[in-house]
Amino acid sequence: MIIRKEYKFYAAHRNETLQDKCSNIHGHRYGLRIHFEVEREGDISTLFGDFDDKIEPYLKSNFDHGMLINCNDPLYQTLLDHTKRTGEHFRLKVFDGPTSVENLAWIMFSEITEMGFRLDRLEVQETDTSTLIYTREDWVRDNRHFAKSSGETSNDEKETSETPSNKTV
Ligand SMILES: [Zn+2]
Fold first, then answer.
1. In this predicted model, what pLDDT tens digit does every residue of 63-75 receive, in sequence order?
2. Model-level pTM?
3. Distance from Cα 21 to the centre of ligand 1, integer Å
4. Cβ contacts of residue 14 below 8 Å, gap of 6+?
5. Out of 3.50.50.60, 3.40.50.720, 3.40.50.300, 3.30.479.10, which CATH number does the structure's domain 2-149 have?
6. 107 Cα to the center of ligand 1, angstroms
């Protein structure tokens, strides 16, 4: 069975690879619908609060009021220089590629899985009218894709991947 929980966070980002308004620094109120696969044990499966106890601090310390940034974006170096010069720290969620909603979904699906949950799907709402629905199959396919692009040997049965390298600065 599935338990669906909803969360939200606010974050800035840009997509430096696009030649349109998305290359400007801007923000979103990201809405999340996380579909957890659970199994009944007696009368219940998982206490709803057990999800919040892990997911809320994860969102707060990694994403909320932070900035999603591609480590290859020249702006990243500028922000690191700023930190070095002023001692002021920003919450940065560093991606290995563009901070698209697709890449965000892959990172979040991987990290929430590492926290010990089994996800069926993750819905990431980026704007009032646009939501990405990211399924377990999408995640398995992306893991193969990212394993290949980083030169690792991929295994078709493999469902888990290396931790996406994203460090909080
Ligand atoms: Zn955007």
1. 999 999 999 999 9
2. 0.86
3. 9
4. 22, 23, 24, 25, 26, 73, 75, 99
5. 3.30.479.10
6. 16
